[in-house]
Amino acid sequence: MRKKRLLLTILSVFLIVAFFTGCACMQSKPTEKNFKAPVVTLDNMEVVHSFGYWYFSKKVKPTKGSPDNVGAPLDLAFTFNVENPNKFPVMLENLKFSVAFEDFDLNTVSTDAAQFIPPGKTNQVRVHAHFDVRQSLLSLLVTGGFKLKEKGTNAWAALEKWWTGIPKYEIPIHVKGGAAVFQAGGVVKVAQFNATFP
Amino acid sequence: MQFKNRWSKILLIGLIAGISIGMSSMAIAADTIKIGSLNDMTGATSDVGKDYALGIAEAIHYINDTGGINGKKIKLYQFDYGYRIPEALTKYSLFKRMKCAAILGWGTGDTEALAPTVAKDKIPYVSASYSGHLCDTTKTPYNLFFAPDYSTQVRGLMTVWFEKKWKQNKDFGKRKPRIAACYMFASPFSSSSIKAYKDQAKVLGFDVGPDQDVSLFAIDTKSQVLALKEFKPDVVLHTNTVMSVAATLRDSYALKLGADNIIKCWGFDENLPKLAGKAADGALGCSPWAFFGLDVPLMKEVTKYAKKYNPGIPPEKRTIHTVQAWASVLGLAEALKRADKAGDLSGEGILKKGFETFKDVDIGLGIAPVTYTPTDHRPQSEAKVYEWTGDKFVLFGSADMKKKWPEKWEKEWLGW
Question: B365 to chain A, minimum CA–CA distance in Å?
Answer without folding.
Answer: 25
